[in-house]
Amino acid sequence: MKKTIVIQGAELCNEGRRFTGSLVVEDTRISRIYEGTDVPMLEGAEVVDGRGMLLLPGVIDDHVHMRDPGLTRKATMDTESAAAAAGGVTTVMDMPNVVPQTVTLERVEEKLAYAASHCHVNHAFFLGATNDNIQEIRNADPRRIPGIKLFMGSSTGNMLVDKREQLERIFRESPMLVMAHCEDTARITTRMKELEQRYGTDDPDVVHHAEIRDSECCIMSSRLAVEMALAAGTRLHIAHLTTAVETEMVRQLPSSLITAEACVAHLLYTDADYQRLGTRIKCNPAVKSEADRAALRRGVADGTISIVATDHAPHLLSEKVGGCRKAMSGMPMVQFSLLSMLEMASEGLFSIERIVEVMCHNPARLFQIDRRGFLREGYQADLVLVKPCEGHKVDKSEVLSLCGWSPREGDTLHWRVERTWVNGQQVWDGQHVDRRIMGQALVFDR
What we know:
Elements: E1 4-14, E2 17-26, E3 29-35, E4 46-49, E5 54-57, E6 59-64, H1 77-86, E7 89-94, H2 105-115, E8 122-125, E9 127-128, H3 134-138, E10 148-151, H4 164-173, E11 178-181, H5 185-199, H6 209-212, H7 215-232, E12 236-238, H8 244-251, E13 258-263, H9 264-268, H10 274-277, H11 290-302, E14 307-309, H12 337-346, H13 352-367, E15 383-393, E16 412-422, E17 425-428
Parallel strand pairs: 1-4, 1-5, 6-7, 7-8, 9-10, 10-11, 11-12, 12-13, 13-14
Antiparallel strand pairs: 1-2, 2-3, 5-15, 15-16, 16-17
Helix pairs in contact: 4-7, 8-11
């Protein structure tokens, strides 16, 4: 017997429109959408009162690090997908720099099999590029893998691809989108040595992080990635854009071939925030100037930047001790990404319709995800109900990531995630994650 849910009287936000209506879920899919105040009466249905709330498609985060396998002291699929669900994120795409690294198709299949019983939201896993795994890339199935993750800047292990010939082969022979981390390693190394000499230490204070991983190291690498993508005719998605120059560069390029992602941290913070938050906001690429942040915000608002994600990268606080060299880079953000964006909407930086575009619709379009990312009849019922509130201060006790902290601790937010559904199943009830619920592996319609 089909399970039916009716979400009544919410304000639905979808494809550039906001309207009062009701939405019916049957089993895993959206079966009907009603516009207006008339309430459908369906015998035996579970009724959810959505009055005073916004009903959105579940967020699709194309850039997370769940740390599983091999780095589970700081995060697991279980904990990070639970944090995602609590934040209204119903789909995550996981990065390959784990232990062992996801650089073979066998490793991708192992992660997919593990996720089936450990990941509470929908999921997919990038195949990582190396200097010597071109055959794995050639054989990758575009319907099962979202893309090839290419580290063109400093990375752990053997995942830095720094040979031009191999970079060109990857762009030329990849059967799918290439998602690139763009930083120039040689410049970073040179800048680190300069700062060490200037300040007489092998671990300069984190306030200098944006001087070491500076704008130029990002611009140089992004220009090289664009050059190679245009030459090969391969779709390039530039991860975590951080500079005004890169934003303007993307604005001038064909969006059918080159797209860019901004991460919530780079929209929230500037290099002035290192004084207040220290290594908690240390990430790669670095948080940069106020002018760079302003350019990123404009890029999100005007459509230059296609996707807003998190680069959710949990570390233990003990691993964040030190400065530019010793403190690990990355921060947990998936639980608070949608709330942070809604907060910025309340400040007038973006419309809520634009937030839905860059966090739900565009990831589904860009990666060609089958039947997700929209409030449409026949689509999977990945849904989130959010509600404005008077304001609550984020407390450490709320953090569901295994690392146990968030850079948003102590901040006052004026929105709450009331409920989250994954494939028609309520995984977050506003207080708890139902860990019995598992997401599905994504299918890409290519």
